[in-house]
Specification:
Alpha-Beta Plaits, TIM Barrel, about 60% helix, eight-stranded mixed β-barrel, 23 helices, 3 domains, about 650 residues, alpha/beta
Amino acid sequence: MTKNIEHSKLYRSEGVKLLYNNSLPGILITFIASTTLAFTFINNSNFHTKITWWLVMTLLLVARVIDTQLWKRSPSECKTRKRWVLRFSSGCLLTAMLWSFYAVNFYPQFSVEELSTTNVILAAMAGGATSILSGNLPLASLYNIIILMPMSILLMTQPEDYKNNLGMLGVCFTAIMIVSSVRSSKYLREGILLRYKNKTLVASMEETIKKRTREVYEISNKDSLTGLFNRSAFLSAAERVEQDFKDNKIAGFSIFFIDLDGFKNINDTLGHNVGDRVLVNLSARLKNCNDTQTLMCRWGGDEFILLVKEKDPTLTRNLAEHITSNFSLPIKLDDQVITLNATIGISICPNHDSSITRLIQLADIAMYSQKGKYPERFAFYNLDLERNLRRKITLNEALKGALDRNEFRLMYQPIVNASGHVVSFEALMRWRYKGQEISPVEFIPLMEQSGRIVEAGNWVLEEACKMLAKMVQQNAEICMCVNISLIQFYDKGFVNNVNQVIERYAIPGHLLHLEVTESIFQSEQMMVNQKVSQLQQRGVKFSVDDFGTGYSSLSVIQNMNVDYIKIDRSFIQHIELKGLAIVQAVMNISQSLNFSVIAEGVETEKQRQMLEDCGIPYMQGYYFSRPLEQENALNYLKTAPEQELATGLA
C-alpha cells in the first residue's frame, strides 16, 4: 500500500513536469491554428463574433503562458503540488471548450471548406493532446471528448449522409484518441517508474561507489586486520621519507624488521581466529610503543616493519627493548593466556644504506641472524651477518647437485674399548666444494632445512654398509655407527630402506648402529617407538648422540630401550671441572636402565684416564684417531694385531 501511494505521488510529480514542459509548443500551435481558422473564413456577418472568439482564445493562451512561467520559476519542492495540476487542467479544458464553441456556434455559416478545415484542426488538436497530455490521463480523455464530441454529435444530427459519416468518424476518432491516451499514459507511467528506478539505482550506485572507493582506499593502504599500513602503502610513505633524507630535511631514520617467535604454533594449535586476535593485540601494543611520526606496517603474516625517524643507536636500542618487553607480556583471550616473543632486526640510514628496499633487506638479515638467540632479542645489521647469509645461500644452491657431482664422501672415526682396541667406526659425512672442505656444522642444517637430508642420508647408509661389508671380512664383529637425521627418520620408507641395505650387503643386523640426536624425543613417540622396535627386532642397535645437550627424557630413553648413550664432547672437555660429576651420573643411570656409555671428544691422556676411572667402557676422539679416509680406515683395521681385535660393541 505504501509503495502504491509513493508511486502515485511520483506519477503526479512527473506528470505535472511533463504537462508544463510541453505546454508552450502546444499553446503556440493552438494560437496559430485559432488565428488561421478565425481570419481565413471571416466575413461581414461573423466578423465581430469571430474576433471576439479569437480575442478570448488569445487571452486564455496568454494566461496559460504566464501560468507556465510562474510554474517554471517556482521552487522545485512546490512544482509538484496539486494546485498546479488544477491550474493547468483548467486552462487546457477551457481551451478545448473554446474550440468546441467555435465548431458548434459557427457551424450554420460553415462552407464546405471551413467545415473541412475545422474538422482537420480539431482532429489535429485531439491527436496532439493524446501525447502532450499523456502525463494526466483524465485530462487527456476530457480534452478529447470536449474538443471532438460536440461537433461529432452535431454532424450526426444533420440530414446529409456525408455529414453523418463525418460525425460517426468523429465519435470513432474520439474513442481511438481516448484509447491512445490510455496507452500513452500507461507507457508514460512505466517510463516514469523505470526512470525513477534508474535514478534510485544510480543514486544507490553512486553511494556504493563512494563506499567502495573508501573501501578500496582502505584496502590499498591499510591492512584489513590490524589497521596498520599494508606493504604498498608503507613503501610509498617510506619512499617520501627517503626523499626527505636526500633533500637534507631529516638527518636519517631506522628500519625495524619484527618477526614473532612461535606464532605458527598458535595458528596450528589454537586456530587462525585466535592467531588473528593475537596479531590485533600486538598491533595495538606496537602503536602504543611509537609516536604518530613512526610508519608502522604489517609486512605479511607475523612480520611487522617500522620506520622510525631516528638514527641514534642508543635511542633505537631503547625502543627495541621497549617493544620486545611489551610483546613478551601475556595476552589474555577469553580463557586463553598466550605468551609470545619477538625478534627485531635494525638497519640505520645512512650508516648502513639510504635505500628503503635495501634497508629493509638489511634489517631482515639482522633479524634472521638473531632468531632464536637469547637473551638479546634484537640485533643491528653488520657486514658479517650479510656475508654469512650469502654463504648459506651459496652453499644451499651448491648442495642441490652435490651428490650427482660426487662431492660427498665418508670418513670413519674409530671407537675403542677401555683397552684401546677398536670395536666400531662412526661414518662421518664430508663435503668438498670447489677445493674447500665445508664443515658438517654448516651443511647438515642446510640439508635438513631443504629436505635434501633424506636423499643424502640414504646415500650415507648405503656407503657405510658397503664399507662395513668390507670390514667384517677382517673382523667379523666390527660395528658401524651411522648418524640418522630426524627428518630422515620421519620418512615413510626409512625402515624398509634400512632392511634392504642390510640384506643387500649381507650384514648381520647387530653390527649396524643408528645414531639419533635427542631431538627425536620431541617427536611423536608412538611413531618413533614403532620404528625403533621394528629395527631392533632385526638386531639393529640405537645410540643417542650428543647426550645432555638437548631435550632427552630418561623415561623416554627407557621406554625406547636405547642401547647406547654418547656423552657429548662438551662435558668431556670440562671433565676436570663439573663435567666429571655428569659423567659419573650417566654411568650410574646406565646401570639402572641397562644401556652402555660412549664418551666422545676424548683428546688427552688425562681425559682418557679419568673416563677409565669412571668405568666408561667405550671412547672416541682425536686422542685415539682422527676421522680416516676409506682406505686408511681399512688399513687401520688391518694393521691392528690379531690378538688385539675386539669383538665389537657389546
